[in-house]
Amino acid sequence: MTQLPHPPTLSPQFCFSTGTLRDFLRLSRSSVDDSIAQHLNALVTPSRTGFDPRSTSQRAPPSASRDVDAQACQAFKEHVLFPSWQARAEVLNYCGIVATSPDPDDPDAALREVENQRERDRVVDERLDPYSGRFFPREPRTETLAMIVRQERGVESIVRSRTWDVVQQRCSAPLERWEDAVARWSDRHRSSKPPPGR
User: Fold this and answer.
1) Angstrom distances, CA of residue 54 to CA of 59, 60, 78
2) How far is it, in rounded angstroms, from Cα 45 to Cα 72?
3) Which of 34, 38, 42, 65 is a plausible cystine mate for 60, CB 3.0–4.6 Å?
4) pLDDT tens digit string along 75-101?
5) 58 phi-psi bin (left φ>0, alpha ψ -120 to 50, beta other)
């Protein structure tokens, strides 16, 4: 089975280190979603009788030769695909909460306040210089993080849809939306965990 990247230790520092946040998401997507066809190909049972040179003389129909065993496919979804999606969702949800929470440790807060005060005290005469009235305040890091989380959630939705299309094509399973499949897996996963404190 595919080795999943270890979920990061969630902290505000992790979220505000936007490079680290994006690196985790990129690594998780590349190790599972970006290589979904290769993962599913690896699940196809190889020939039990060995290589038959005559097998190369004619092409097999793609659907017959490429379908993945339903049990192997289900195991892949349960143990690799859905856990990787869940780990990314937890990171994005946590960082989304950090982005909307007060940030008393913002290192740029004092600098922003000085810039804002300087702007309030500045005398502007737009007749002499029409550009003198322009002021672009520095964004708090929570706003930057919120924008990144929104972007990454959009990317995540696209990645999941594309991955799920490939899974649906290759696995002989009933057609369903990925949201429904993940919700059912999540419900089963939650109910199989022992209650905390036991």
Assistant:
1) 11, 12, 37
2) 9
3) 65
4) 898 999 999 999 999 999 999 999 988
5) beta
